[in-house]
Amino acid sequence: MELKHFDFLLSSLVKKLYHKDKSITNEYLQEGVIDSQLGNDQVLTLVDTLEPILLEIGHSDLSQNALEKLLEPLELRQDFHQHFLKYWEQQRDEIRSIVRNELIFNDRLSGVSWRVDMKTNSKKISNINQPIAIVELLLSRNQQEREDTKSIMFEIDKTQISNLVNQIEEIESLLEKGIQQKN
Amino acid sequence: MSFFSEKRSPKGIFTAINSLNKFPQQLLAKLCQDVVDALQYKGSVPQVSHYQSELEKNSIELGKNEVQSTINVLFFLYRDASRASNLDQKQFLEILEKQTGITNQAGKVLATIWEREKQNLPSLNMPNVGKLIDFKWKVGVTFSSSISENLVTPFVTINISVSNTDDLVQTHSFEMSVPEFKEFARNLKEINQLLEVI
């Protein structure tokens, strides 16, 4: 087996486990490494060893050291071992955000867009021609392999947005503190 | 809020029309035209200072706020008229005279411009944009889950209430991971900066 086969297995398994790609079957994996010296059974054994590790490191967000420890008993060839480490380093952020999004069971924010307008219709004449922002939030939810999105639009004036930003800054400092404590 | 269709008058309209009545005819016609042009994005919003000085040349003293209110009320009236179905010149003038204290002379100027421009003012319809009524948030840390045992990560949950044009309030809730929240925050701060500057 060459490095390219190993790489193929790794990236295909990530597609299967994290991107929920249903086309990655055992047959697909065996086909992909057909020009290696491996027999079909050997491919499946390798897959069975790699899968739980890939699941563990993604869902537990393991560090490189922890990954090393997990790989030790496998006694992989040196270049495969290095490649795995490097591959994880590259994929980590993306996989982390996939797992995080899986933890949002209801609606998540999938988009924000906005524009600033001059108000030309209001209950008070003095409000007309004041600048206001129109904000659109896209909220998405995963429903049985489909994604449902709804749009919420609202207008917001100077005072309101200033208030909002104050609250946003409060949240930011809370998150800062939280992250510092964790580290 | 419909003036021409439902006869509902916004607050401050009488005072604004009072100031409008003081305009010399030609200047009033120019202001109406400027407003209508601005509504079609053909020109920029009329400048208060310009009209103040033109009024002064005619020995008419109006404060900045008073001039601003005349501009605002014209925007309101022409926009509202464009939404009312098939409003002709006569009806425009009649309703205007009945609902506000506008002089016949000033009313005629507004109505003439309406007649001339009404084809060009398409129903300037804004989408159903609600108003933000309430904004609540909480920050939590998920320390375990069925999906991933060890992923300890904070989530921000937002609960917003929006009232639509019929005064119905809808509440929506959504969660964000930290990077998503940062993006959300960035957008809001940008809006804040822009609104401060204008």
Automatic annotation (TrEMBL), chain A:
It comes from the Eukaryota. It holds the Pfam family COMMD1_N. PROSITE patterns: COMM (PS51269). Residues 108-179 form the COMM domain. Belongs to the COMM domain-containing protein 1 family. This is COMM domain-containing protein 1.
From TrEMBL, chain B:
InterPro entries: COMM, COMMD4/6/7/8. This is COMM domain-containing protein 6. It holds the Pfam family COMM_domain. It comes from the Eukaryota. Residues 131-198 form the COMM domain. It comes from Anaeramoeba flamelloides. Belongs to the COMM domain-containing protein 6 family.
